[in-house]
Design brief:
The chain is mainly α. It starts with a helix and ends in a 6-residue tail after the last helix. The protein has one domain. It is built from twelve helices and no strands.
Length: 291
Protein backbone atom coordinates (compact mmCIF):
# COMPACT_ATOMS: atom_id res chain seq x y z
CA UNK A 1 0.00 0.00 0.00
CA UNK A 2 2.73 2.46 1.03
CA UNK A 3 4.83 2.09 -2.13
CA UNK A 4 1.76 2.35 -4.34
CA UNK A 5 0.68 5.49 -2.49
CA UNK A 6 4.09 7.10 -3.00
CA UNK A 7 3.99 6.29 -6.73
CA UNK A 8 0.44 7.55 -7.23
CA UNK A 9 0.74 10.72 -5.17
CA UNK A 10 4.05 11.61 -6.84
CA UNK A 11 2.53 11.16 -10.31
CA UNK A 12 -0.48 13.33 -9.44
CA UNK A 13 1.75 15.97 -7.86
CA UNK A 14 3.85 16.12 -11.04
CA UNK A 15 0.67 16.64 -13.08
CA UNK A 16 -0.40 19.36 -10.68
CA UNK A 17 2.76 21.29 -11.50
CA UNK A 18 2.49 20.48 -15.19
CA UNK A 19 -0.18 23.13 -15.82
CA UNK A 20 2.16 25.98 -14.92
CA UNK A 21 4.54 24.82 -17.68
CA UNK A 22 1.76 23.90 -20.12
CA UNK A 23 0.25 27.40 -19.96
CA UNK A 24 3.50 28.83 -21.31
CA UNK A 25 4.23 26.15 -23.92
CA UNK A 26 0.68 26.10 -25.31
CA UNK A 27 1.05 29.74 -26.31
CA UNK A 28 3.60 28.57 -28.90
CA UNK A 29 2.72 24.94 -29.69
CA UNK A 30 -0.89 23.88 -30.40
CA UNK A 31 -2.34 21.27 -28.02
CA UNK A 32 -2.47 18.07 -30.08
CA UNK A 33 0.99 18.74 -31.49
CA UNK A 34 2.27 19.25 -27.94
CA UNK A 35 0.63 15.99 -26.87
CA UNK A 36 2.29 14.27 -29.84
CA UNK A 37 5.66 15.64 -28.72
CA UNK A 38 4.99 14.48 -25.15
CA UNK A 39 4.19 10.92 -26.20
CA UNK A 40 7.17 10.69 -28.56
CA UNK A 41 9.54 12.03 -25.89
CA UNK A 42 7.99 9.63 -23.40
CA UNK A 43 8.75 6.74 -25.73
CA UNK A 44 12.30 7.94 -26.32
CA UNK A 45 12.84 8.15 -22.56
CA UNK A 46 11.45 4.68 -21.77
CA UNK A 47 12.67 2.62 -24.74
CA UNK A 48 16.34 2.60 -23.58
CA UNK A 49 15.16 1.20 -20.24
CA UNK A 50 13.31 -1.55 -22.07
CA UNK A 51 16.34 -2.34 -24.25
CA UNK A 52 18.50 -2.76 -21.15
CA UNK A 53 15.93 -4.94 -19.38
CA UNK A 54 15.31 -8.64 -19.79
CA UNK A 55 11.63 -8.10 -20.46
CA UNK A 56 9.99 -10.01 -23.28
CA UNK A 57 7.08 -8.77 -25.34
CA UNK A 58 3.67 -10.11 -24.26
CA UNK A 59 1.64 -12.43 -26.47
CA UNK A 60 -0.22 -10.97 -29.43
CA UNK A 61 -3.62 -10.78 -27.71
CA UNK A 62 -2.13 -8.86 -24.78
CA UNK A 63 -0.42 -6.41 -27.14
CA UNK A 64 -3.77 -5.49 -28.69
CA UNK A 65 -5.31 -5.02 -25.27
CA UNK A 66 -2.46 -2.72 -24.23
CA UNK A 67 -2.83 -0.66 -27.41
CA UNK A 68 -6.57 -0.36 -26.82
CA UNK A 69 -5.96 0.88 -23.28
CA UNK A 70 -3.56 3.47 -24.70
CA UNK A 71 -6.13 4.64 -27.23
CA UNK A 72 -8.59 5.22 -24.38
CA UNK A 73 -6.13 6.93 -22.03
CA UNK A 74 -3.80 8.93 -24.25
CA UNK A 75 -5.93 9.24 -27.36
CA UNK A 76 -9.52 9.79 -26.23
CA UNK A 77 -9.07 11.02 -22.65
CA UNK A 78 -6.19 13.47 -23.11
CA UNK A 79 -7.57 14.52 -26.49
CA UNK A 80 -10.96 15.28 -24.93
CA UNK A 81 -9.23 17.16 -22.14
CA UNK A 82 -7.51 19.46 -24.65
CA UNK A 83 -10.78 20.07 -26.49
CA UNK A 84 -12.57 20.72 -23.22
CA UNK A 85 -9.92 23.13 -22.00
CA UNK A 86 -10.12 25.03 -25.29
CA UNK A 87 -13.93 25.39 -25.26
CA UNK A 88 -14.48 25.72 -21.51
CA UNK A 89 -12.65 27.44 -18.65
CA UNK A 90 -9.76 26.41 -16.43
CA UNK A 91 -11.87 26.29 -13.27
CA UNK A 92 -14.55 24.22 -15.06
CA UNK A 93 -11.85 21.85 -16.22
CA UNK A 94 -10.38 21.46 -12.74
CA UNK A 95 -13.77 20.79 -11.16
CA UNK A 96 -15.00 18.35 -13.80
CA UNK A 97 -11.78 16.34 -14.11
CA UNK A 98 -11.69 16.02 -10.31
CA UNK A 99 -14.56 13.56 -10.84
CA UNK A 100 -12.05 11.04 -12.26
CA UNK A 101 -11.57 9.26 -8.90
CA UNK A 102 -15.32 8.67 -8.63
CA UNK A 103 -15.32 7.14 -12.12
CA UNK A 104 -12.31 5.00 -11.17
CA UNK A 105 -14.23 3.63 -8.19
CA UNK A 106 -17.28 2.86 -10.36
CA UNK A 107 -15.21 1.05 -13.00
CA UNK A 108 -13.25 -0.79 -10.29
CA UNK A 109 -16.52 -2.28 -9.06
CA UNK A 110 -17.90 -3.05 -12.54
CA UNK A 111 -14.72 -4.35 -14.20
CA UNK A 112 -12.46 -5.54 -11.39
CA UNK A 113 -15.25 -6.64 -9.04
CA UNK A 114 -13.56 -4.82 -6.20
CA UNK A 115 -15.50 -4.70 -2.95
CA UNK A 116 -16.77 -1.18 -2.38
CA UNK A 117 -16.70 -0.67 1.37
CA UNK A 118 -18.29 2.18 3.30
CA UNK A 119 -14.79 3.26 4.29
CA UNK A 120 -13.68 3.65 0.67
CA UNK A 121 -16.87 5.51 -0.29
CA UNK A 122 -16.34 7.87 2.65
CA UNK A 123 -12.69 8.36 1.66
CA UNK A 124 -13.63 9.46 -1.87
CA UNK A 125 -16.37 11.77 -0.56
CA UNK A 126 -14.07 13.42 1.99
CA UNK A 127 -11.24 13.94 -0.51
CA UNK A 128 -13.70 15.28 -3.13
CA UNK A 129 -15.00 17.82 -0.62
CA UNK A 130 -11.40 18.92 -0.10
CA UNK A 131 -10.92 19.50 -3.84
CA UNK A 132 -14.19 21.44 -4.07
CA UNK A 133 -13.13 23.66 -1.16
CA UNK A 134 -9.77 24.40 -2.82
CA UNK A 135 -11.16 25.08 -6.29
CA UNK A 136 -14.23 27.09 -5.17
CA UNK A 137 -17.16 26.15 -7.49
CA UNK A 138 -18.51 29.70 -7.23
CA UNK A 139 -15.87 30.69 -9.78
CA UNK A 140 -17.12 28.17 -12.35
CA UNK A 141 -19.45 29.08 -15.21
CA UNK A 142 -21.50 26.18 -16.59
CA UNK A 143 -23.43 28.17 -19.19
CA UNK A 144 -24.30 27.60 -22.84
CA UNK A 145 -20.98 29.04 -23.99
CA UNK A 146 -18.98 26.34 -22.22
CA UNK A 147 -21.40 23.45 -22.83
CA UNK A 148 -19.38 21.71 -25.57
CA UNK A 149 -16.18 22.08 -23.59
CA UNK A 150 -17.80 20.83 -20.40
CA UNK A 151 -19.11 17.72 -22.18
CA UNK A 152 -15.62 17.04 -23.54
CA UNK A 153 -14.20 17.40 -20.01
CA UNK A 154 -16.75 14.90 -18.66
CA UNK A 155 -15.65 12.46 -21.38
CA UNK A 156 -12.03 13.09 -20.41
CA UNK A 157 -12.71 12.38 -16.72
CA UNK A 158 -14.78 9.27 -17.49
CA UNK A 159 -12.26 7.76 -19.91
CA UNK A 160 -9.33 8.50 -17.59
CA UNK A 161 -11.15 6.55 -14.91
CA UNK A 162 -11.68 3.70 -17.38
CA UNK A 163 -8.03 3.84 -18.50
CA UNK A 164 -6.72 3.65 -14.94
CA UNK A 165 -8.84 0.61 -14.09
CA UNK A 166 -7.95 -1.16 -17.35
CA UNK A 167 -4.26 -0.64 -16.58
CA UNK A 168 -4.71 -2.68 -13.42
CA UNK A 169 -6.78 -5.34 -15.19
CA UNK A 170 -4.40 -5.86 -18.12
CA UNK A 171 -1.31 -5.69 -15.91
CA UNK A 172 -2.68 -8.46 -13.68
CA UNK A 173 -4.53 -10.60 -16.23
CA UNK A 174 -1.68 -10.67 -18.73
CA UNK A 175 1.16 -10.39 -16.17
CA UNK A 176 2.51 -7.37 -18.06
CA UNK A 177 5.35 -5.34 -16.56
CA UNK A 178 4.54 -1.67 -15.84
CA UNK A 179 7.28 -0.48 -18.21
CA UNK A 180 5.84 -2.48 -21.12
CA UNK A 181 2.32 -1.37 -20.20
CA UNK A 182 3.36 2.29 -20.30
CA UNK A 183 5.27 2.04 -23.58
CA UNK A 184 2.45 0.13 -25.27
CA UNK A 185 -0.13 2.64 -24.02
CA UNK A 186 1.92 5.52 -25.47
CA UNK A 187 1.94 3.78 -28.85
CA UNK A 188 -1.81 3.22 -28.63
CA UNK A 189 -2.36 6.91 -27.92
CA UNK A 190 -0.23 7.88 -30.92
CA UNK A 191 -2.67 6.05 -33.22
CA UNK A 192 -5.17 8.88 -32.58
CA UNK A 193 -2.87 11.78 -31.74
CA UNK A 194 -0.75 11.62 -34.93
CA UNK A 195 -3.71 12.24 -37.29
CA UNK A 196 -5.19 14.80 -34.84
CA UNK A 197 -1.91 16.72 -34.85
CA UNK A 198 -1.65 16.53 -38.64
CA UNK A 199 -5.12 18.06 -39.02
CA UNK A 200 -4.34 20.68 -36.37
CA UNK A 201 -1.15 21.82 -38.13
CA UNK A 202 -3.09 22.52 -41.32
CA UNK A 203 -5.04 25.16 -39.39
CA UNK A 204 -2.56 26.38 -36.75
CA UNK A 205 1.13 27.12 -36.99
CA UNK A 206 3.80 26.50 -34.38
CA UNK A 207 5.12 29.77 -32.94
CA UNK A 208 8.67 30.85 -32.26
CA UNK A 209 10.48 28.26 -30.16
CA UNK A 210 13.14 29.56 -27.78
CA UNK A 211 15.27 27.85 -25.13
CA UNK A 212 12.56 28.15 -22.47
CA UNK A 213 9.99 26.43 -24.70
CA UNK A 214 12.44 23.61 -25.44
CA UNK A 215 13.02 23.07 -21.71
CA UNK A 216 9.25 23.16 -21.13
CA UNK A 217 8.61 20.53 -23.82
CA UNK A 218 11.37 18.30 -22.43
CA UNK A 219 9.89 18.59 -18.94
CA UNK A 220 6.39 17.77 -20.19
CA UNK A 221 7.61 14.83 -22.28
CA UNK A 222 10.10 13.24 -19.91
CA UNK A 223 8.91 14.15 -16.40
CA UNK A 224 5.15 14.69 -16.83
CA UNK A 225 4.68 11.91 -19.37
CA UNK A 226 7.36 9.20 -19.15
CA UNK A 227 8.06 9.37 -15.41
CA UNK A 228 4.59 10.34 -14.14
CA UNK A 229 2.71 7.87 -16.34
CA UNK A 230 4.98 5.02 -15.26
CA UNK A 231 4.43 6.00 -11.62
CA UNK A 232 0.65 6.17 -12.11
CA UNK A 233 0.51 2.81 -13.88
CA UNK A 234 2.73 1.27 -11.22
CA UNK A 235 0.46 2.57 -8.47
CA UNK A 236 -2.54 0.85 -10.07
CA UNK A 237 -0.55 -2.36 -10.48
CA UNK A 238 0.19 -2.41 -6.73
CA UNK A 239 -2.97 -1.02 -5.11
CA UNK A 240 -6.70 -1.65 -5.52
CA UNK A 241 -8.07 0.83 -8.05
CA UNK A 242 -10.69 2.18 -5.65
CA UNK A 243 -7.88 3.10 -3.22
CA UNK A 244 -5.42 4.33 -5.88
CA UNK A 245 -8.11 6.67 -7.23
CA UNK A 246 -7.59 8.91 -4.21
CA UNK A 247 -4.01 9.67 -5.20
CA UNK A 248 -5.41 11.76 -8.07
CA UNK A 249 -6.49 14.39 -5.55
CA UNK A 250 -2.87 15.44 -5.06
CA UNK A 251 -3.05 17.02 -8.53
CA UNK A 252 -5.36 20.01 -7.88
CA UNK A 253 -3.78 20.63 -4.47
CA UNK A 254 -0.27 20.77 -5.97
CA UNK A 255 -1.45 22.97 -8.84
CA UNK A 256 -2.95 25.53 -6.46
CA UNK A 257 0.07 25.39 -4.13
CA UNK A 258 2.49 26.05 -7.00
CA UNK A 259 0.31 28.92 -8.16
CA UNK A 260 0.71 30.41 -4.68
CA UNK A 261 4.48 29.90 -4.71
CA UNK A 262 5.28 30.97 -8.28
CA UNK A 263 2.33 32.98 -9.59
CA UNK A 264 1.83 35.15 -6.49
CA UNK A 265 -1.69 33.90 -5.81
CA UNK A 266 -2.74 34.43 -2.18
CA UNK A 267 -2.48 31.61 0.37
CA UNK A 268 -6.08 31.18 1.49
CA UNK A 269 -7.79 29.28 4.26
CA UNK A 270 -9.54 27.21 1.55
CA UNK A 271 -6.19 25.72 0.54
CA UNK A 272 -5.37 24.57 4.07
CA UNK A 273 -8.86 23.27 4.83
CA UNK A 274 -9.08 21.48 1.48
CA UNK A 275 -5.67 19.90 2.03
CA UNK A 276 -6.80 18.55 5.40
CA UNK A 277 -9.84 16.94 3.77
CA UNK A 278 -7.73 15.42 0.96
CA UNK A 279 -5.14 13.98 3.37
CA UNK A 280 -7.95 12.66 5.57
CA UNK A 281 -9.54 10.94 2.56
CA UNK A 282 -6.27 9.25 1.62
CA UNK A 283 -5.76 8.21 5.26
CA UNK A 284 -9.27 6.74 5.40
CA UNK A 285 -8.54 4.63 2.33
CA UNK A 286 -5.73 2.79 4.10
CA UNK A 287 -6.64 -0.81 4.89
CA UNK A 288 -5.01 -0.31 8.29
CA UNK A 289 -7.69 2.20 9.23
CA UNK A 290 -10.55 0.72 11.21
CA UNK A 291 -13.95 1.11 9.55
Amino acid sequence: MFRGAIYGITAAAIWGGMYVVSDVVLEVIPPFTLLLMRLLLGLLALLPLFMRSNLTLPVSSARWRILAVGVIGFGISLGAQFVGTDYSTAINGSLITSASPAFIVIFAVLILRERLTKQRILAVIVATIGVIIILDPAQADFGAETFVGDIALVIAALTWGLYSVLVRKVTHDEQVDTLLMTIGAFIGGLLLIIPASAIELTQTEIGDIDFGIVIGVLYLGIISTAVAMWLWNRAFALVDASVASLFFFAQPFTGVLLSVLFLSQPMTANLWIGAIFIVSGIFLSSPRTKA
